[in-house]
Amino acid sequence: MDIKQLRYFSAIVRMGSFRKAAEAVHISQPALSLSIKGLESKLGVQLLERGSGKLVPTTFGKSLFEHAQKMDSLVQNALDDINQLKGIGEGQVRLGISPFVATTEMGSIIGRFISRYPRIQILTCHGIYSWSMSQLISGDIDFFFAEIPVDTQHPDAVHHELFRMPYKLVVGKQHPLAQKKQVSLEQVLDYRLAYGKDWAADIHGWSSAFAGNDIKQPESFIDVASSEFYVSLAKECDIIILNPMTSYIRQQVERGDLVKLNIPGTDFHTVIALVHRKQQSFSPAGQFVFDEIKEQISLLTSQIVG
Q: What sequence ranges are listed for the domain HTH lysR-type (predicted)?
């Protein structure tokens, strides 16, 4: 039994799925399954209940998970001490953050990082892709986390795709379309739409869905606003909102206050990435923060996109 096997096992318990855990730890699903079978063989016990639904740990699995969490914490503390001795644990890093996607998760990641490395100063700013890119190229920030516009690859930047954020058309529970099992794009056009006007350039599948059906793409009657604003709007009138399926929106759907419209043949999503300048030479602290955010976002992807 090694540390890597324990981390793989912990990822499965946290996410309840071999597929999601494999994506988080960056190995193939067959390799992950083989590793867990090897771990169970070494221990001589079954660690997971493999049913048709979510994977759950057995009694043996729950015990191992608790100890694995403690061991992971001890290993992380050892690495932190070594990094401090190497001088990585100090310096200044300037980071751009998307104002719309994974803000809660990014706050938690950065907060935990600051707690572990109080001598690393992390300066953050919020902005959409175009603004963040201008700050990056001018050297005012070291890297940024954002939604990448469709077909956009800046020649002086490198984009590291982290995950894809699904977007859905959502209505309040009182909306006439809320009880329909399927809805067509033509039916959507019978109602006013609300979405950030800048979002249309970022959402894959949005423009093409209407063009493919010879339908004029609808305009939003509201400019950029918060998800909370759109949700409150949808609860009070018969509009349709286009929104990223963040944890906040999913909670509203699970509670029954909002309803996702099922529109066959559509797939709306944005690409979320970390972006830095080409041939950029990070400071030790900058490289450390970049790698840490990339790893932590990968581990949290299932929580972000559901």
A: 1-58
